[in-house]
Amino acid sequence: MTTVTTLTGVPGILRPFKEFLKEKGLPEGSQIVYYGCAGTCTPFVELLAYATRDLNLTHLFVPLFDEANAHVLKSVPAVGMQAKEGAAVKPALIVLMGGLAMPGVPVTIEEVKAVVSKHGVPVAGVCFMSMFEKSGWLLEISFELLIDAKIDPVTITRKAK
């Protein structure tokens, strides 16, 4: 993989993702299927889906690799994208979320490779703090797009007691 650019902030995550989807030229209704950890990855999946909502694609969230528990992301007025009813998984693109690669998450690289192989579609990855690199996934998974964001430093401010 070759570094294309370095951006900052939330738009630095969302805009390149949207551009990537536009470049793919996927037909309307095509499924973008995000695999990640419930709770921690879900808000980022909702942001990615929200940023690309005008592309008329279908967004699904799959907790870990439990495709039987897949949920469609729908736009909720005055809220944003939210996980709703279930759906059959037929991805045009797989998006692996970095939470899957974190220590202690009950996922193996063999499971990841099996899902990627099963569907035979392009794979993108979104992670923080070089999680895919640290876990060795970059040696095992062929990402067409990798967005690796840094949350460093984190500044905490409090009123003096």
UniProtKB/TrEMBL annotation:
Superkingdom of origin organism: Archaea
Name of protein: DUF2124 domain-containing protein
